[in-house]
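Journal club side-thread
Mid-discussion, someone asked how the predicted structure for our own chain would compare to the paper's figures. Pasting it here so we can look after the session.
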Amino acid sequence: MFLDTANTEEIKECFRSGAFKGVTTNPTILLKVGVERFEQIQSILETEAQIIYVQILGTTAEELYADYERLKQIKTRKKIGIKVPINTVGLEVVKKIKADNEDTLVLGTAIYSADQGILAALAGCDCVAPYVNRMSSNNIDPFEAIARMRSFFDDRKLNCEILAASFKNTKQILDALRAGAHTCTISADLFRQMANKELAMNAITVFNEDGMKLEEKTK
């Protein structure tokens, strides 16, 4: 799974679990940190995360590609994936990035429909990020869209994975995975909700209390 944050303290905390492969960011997430963009990217690269997705900025193909070239200059042994917002301009930029370096990881983001995700995959994206909760809020069934994308990718053996994003609760995460998402990117808060179930925490407390009683009996 991926962690959807630019907060290095959250990254350090959550990566201790062993459940995460990388980090996804976007301009809004980076803005919350309040640090210059490239400086914060460098701080994230110094954490345990091995893959960091960064969204390129701009409204034209030229602006987006120029930002990609700026990100290319970052010196690191880790993988910096490029997030490209998918529209007609974004599709053009995906093609240009892959022509420049076919090994660059490209994530098509701001996906709100199956047909949009399919176009992103055909253009060369390695992953697509359907926005689950945002789709639901706009009366779009995100799970049907994920299922349709997964069926299309599998039937045609496209090398594109579904990295579901935008979650309000843990049920949406499970439903996205059941619908066919290969993985998800989630917030630190939702990760804690997934791991620290109240019933489990209560049981752990009882086990520890009983364990202490056993220790007392052996003294």
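Post-session note: The radius of gyration is 20 Å.
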